C-alpha cells in the first residue's frame, strides 16, 4: 500500500499501477471555496487563495478508501508505510478508519506500520533529487525484502491496485500536512497557496 508524500497532486508513482479504483476528479476550472466560509488560522489568511478540498470531504473520502483497502487486501496482512512528513495526517486518519473496521466487522486483518521520510521540494519546485532522511534504502516499499534504489522509484511498475483519493489540477496545494517550506502543515483543509504566501515563506 503506497502513501506518496504528495498523495493529492504532486507524486507520480501511483500512475504506474495497472488497476485503479475510481477516484474523485477535480476539474481544471474548479473555483474552490472562499476562505471566509471556513475556519482558517489568522496567520495564514493572507497567504492562501482558496480552500480546494474541505477537511470534511477529505475525511469522508478517507473513510471510503479504508473500506476499499480492506476489500482489496482480502485476508492478507497489511504493511502500512507512511511517507513523512506530508503523509502523516492522511496516514493517521486512514489507519484510524481501518482499525475501526477491524474492530467492528466480522473479519479483521493484521497490520504493521512503518515510516520513511523523504524530501524533494524547495519552495514550490521539486529539486529532482529525492532524499531519504533517516534511512539508506527503500526496502519497505517492496515488503521488506527487495531494496529499491532511489533512481528507480519513478519506474516502479509492479502490478498493484492503486487506491487514489483525489485527482486534482496541477496546482501547488498546502494543508492537511502538505507544506510549503515546512509551513501550512497545521491547516485542516487542502488549500491553494497565494503568491503572497510563497513570497512570505520562501526559503
UniProtKB/TrEMBL annotation:
It is found in: Cytoplasm. Pathway: Purine metabolism; IMP biosynthesis via salvage pathway; IMP from hypoxanthine: step 1/1. Keywords: Cytoplasm, Glycosyltransferase, Purine salvage, Transferase. Its EC number is 2.4.2.8. One of its GO terms (cellular component) is cytosol. Gene3D superfamilies: 3.40.50.2020. It catalyses: IMP + diphosphate = hypoxanthine + 5-phospho-alpha-D-ribose 1-diphosphate; GMP + diphosphate = guanine + 5-phospho-alpha-D-ribose 1-diphosphate. This is Hypoxanthine-guanine phosphoribosyltransferase.
